[in-house]
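Supplementary Methods S3. Input chains for the assembly prediction are listed below.
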Amino acid sequence: MEVTVSQALMYYVGDWFWCVLWAAAIVVIMFSLTLTNRLTLACCMAFSVLLLYNPIALKLICKFVEPYTYYRFFWIAPAGIIISYALIDFMGRLRFAGFSVIVAVAFFFMLSKGALPFYKLDTFKLPENEYQLEGDIFQLQDAIASCGKSNPRIAMPMPVQMEYRSYDASVETAIRKETYQGMGRKEYEFSGKSRRKQAEYVLGGLLNNIKAYSPEEVRDALKLTRSEFVISPRVGEIYDTLSAAGCSEIATTDSYIFYRVSI
Amino acid sequence: MTVVYIKAALVIILFLVLFYLASFILEPVLKLSFNDISDRLVCGCLIYFFVFEIICVPMIMLKQPFHRLVIMWLVLLFLWFLVLNPLLVFKHGCGRISLQGINIISLIMITAATAAVVFLAAVSVCQRYTAWDPGYYIGTMNTTLFTDTMYLYDGADGTPEEYINLRYALSGFYMQFCIFCSILSIHARTMAWFIMRPLCVIMAGLCVYRLGCACHNELWTGFIRKERRVFAAVFVVIWAGISLYWSGTHTTAYFMIVRGYEAKGWCANVVIAAVLCAAIMLFKRKNEEEWWKRLSLACFASVPISMSSMALVPACVAIMALTLIARYGQLQKTLARATICVLPNVMIMAVYLASKFR
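Predicted structure tokens for the full assembly:
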């Protein structure tokens, strides 16, 4: 994945609103400093651009790290802290406390209009239990425990796999994380992969309801990945395919079916 | 859930006490002086993770069982806090926390800053985050506890690793929290969501408070003049307010509030802030010797806290050193000191790259 410096910058700050705020904060700080300090800050920014924030440095850095993670180099110029400093510096120069309070209130009013606070994000949810997990994972864990098999090898859909092992480390997953991450990329190519990887793609495609496969293809994939159990969403076509491929249903939860592979 | 919240709060307090106690070794060894609790907590946190790294990484590389690390670390903590610290305090004394200049305004502002940080920590606890990263990192902690091994199994899928992945195993961050999962019987998910994340917010708040103290400008007029504590506290309140709204998915605030359980979150919000604080004081030319020591402490503790610091901290120190040279000259002295500061990061980066390109 190719990334440019400006894209990485936008990754970091989020959107133009914050980008403008950050730039404005730097300007405010620049004007508030003495000449020597202003030159020092300008020098610091010039060295930052020379060493890190230019296309040549980006190319060099990306030889060692994933291009996607280049945005982390902007952490060393923390926008949140710079904006806070600019605001407080501006407030500090006002003669009366009342003016400072008005400036702060006006600033946060503008912020509330231009940005979404964390408590209004989709991710904000009061924890229901000490694991911050939802119902199906517990039901699945009960079903897996009732099989009596130690370290079972299970093929599971992506949403379950993302959470399951952080709750119950006693299972092995038949589809590797890298396979699922590969399936999420645009350049995902089925051909040219090892047989094992292709088998993981078949199971991943089926269990996430991305693509339909024949029972024979699924049977081969289950054999190649050495899957002992399968978790699938409650979708009729997937159920039919897995049943025809030699899987027998053991338990059901609100959203998933748990099968034993008997090939 | 009330019991979970109380237990989590107690464990967070336990970590803060450990960081506080860890700081006592710095006074006689590095000749640092502390006059503020926040200063002790930040420096204590840094030295705590640095010492842990020295114990943890060799044990990971030697494929030792995890319970051995738990025993060794508990023995070391016992010796450090209950034997060495009293001896050091008895022999050298310890810096008193200065209450000079504290008045009603500073007390109100410090209370407001504390409330703002606690509110952010509470918001962080209520974030539900599902992705591959928590799956891997918390999975690694859970796998460590289940298999009694360290980095020998893939945290995301549970399959045995062909070799220890140095991208993660050169930092002892997750193992540190695993130790407390093990001895306090806390599930890895509970530790990550209810303890590591708010602790990251609190440590970030303390670092911003330190930055506020460093940035304090005596020339200001208005209500925040003269008293640096008031300024630092107002700084924390405003930073907390801005962080609350800075909710893009790659921002430092996101890495603190949503992904604070990850080492990366600590790197973005604790390590970098500690390095910047030292850099600002070096530009101010106040207690130069002491602030070089503090910078080296932040750099030495950076990789133990997060592997992301491996490249970020040397980059930050390089920019700071070049600017210092441009302003004050002293090429050799500044370069030599900056090189010493980033030496561990560079060495770890060399090991990591050698393993990557072998």
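Residues 2-97+105-356 of chain B form one domain. The first helix of chain B runs from residue 2 to 22.
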